Backbone:
């Protein structure tokens, strides 16, 4: 597998002086194309901070981040993070966060249209993704007409609209029951394995741990262990 992301010696601190908190303490990791990785740990361990730092949503204080062979952070951003995120990264969160006044198809089309993709191409891509997630008969439905699991599938489709190399998911099954949660995790695994994306999932849900290729565990801002799952 080729490396999709390499993070080296990432540090992040909140606050100053005696009240400051170390959120990330010299974290290094690699994400490879075609694998899905779980990031586990107790609340406050630094999981979400790491995800948003690797996803170029908030900069680290120090360290180096390389994505697709390109150094994107080293003593500051080397690229425009907003533009880079839109073209190369996808995000799925605990809530689907779909725009309530747009249909499922229109929600998936939205990021492509922001990038200037023509209506014809964005419509074809959105319908392809919606079909791949088993939602063809729901493409004209508004979010309020979809179940929680269906909304999250639309959110994943939207995250994949611009064909990102990396997909970050922060507690994507927290609002779902166990069966729907597993379905969403299996879909994320298929995204990694079938389309050669690198997928990093922050989760507390260990019931579907067999879905993952590797498991990273965090404590106190550090990755304290990593291991391949039994499926590997």
Residues:
């Amino acid at each position: 597998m080729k490396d999709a992301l390499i993070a080296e010696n990432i540090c992040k601190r909140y606050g100053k002086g005696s009240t400051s908190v170390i959120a990330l303490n010299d974290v290094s990791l690699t994400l490879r194309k075609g694998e899905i990785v779980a990031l586990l740990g107790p609340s406050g361990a630094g999981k979400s901070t790491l995800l948003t730092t690797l996803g170029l949503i908030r900069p680290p204080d120090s360290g180096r981040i390389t994505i697709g062979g390109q150094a994107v952070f080293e003593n500051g951003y080397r690229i425009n993070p907003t533009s880079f995120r839109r073209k190369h990264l996808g995000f799925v969160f605990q809530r689907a966060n779909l725009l309530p006044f747009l249909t499922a198809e229109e929600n998936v089309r939205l990021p492509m249209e922001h990038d200037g993709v023509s209506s014809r191409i964005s419509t074809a891509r959105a319908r392809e993704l919606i079909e791949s997630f088993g939602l063809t008969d729901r493409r004209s439905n508004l979010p309020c007409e979809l179940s929680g699991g269906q909304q999250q599938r639309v959110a994943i489709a939207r995250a994949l609209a611009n064909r990102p190399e990396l997909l970050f998911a922060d507690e994507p099954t927290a609002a779902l029951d166990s069966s729907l949660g597993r379905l969403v995790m299996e879909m994320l695994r298929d995204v990694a394995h079938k389309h050669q994306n690198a997928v990093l999932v922050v989760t507390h849900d260990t019931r579907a741990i067999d879905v993952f290729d590797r498991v990273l565990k965090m404590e106190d801002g550090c990755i304290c262990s990593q291991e391949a799952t039994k499926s590997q």
Notes: DSSP finds six helices and ten strands in the chain. The mean pLDDT is 92. Strands lie at 3-14, 21-32, 36-40, 62-67, 70-74, 89-92, 166-170, 198-202, 214-219, 222-228. Residues 129 and 157 are 6 Å apart (CA to CA).
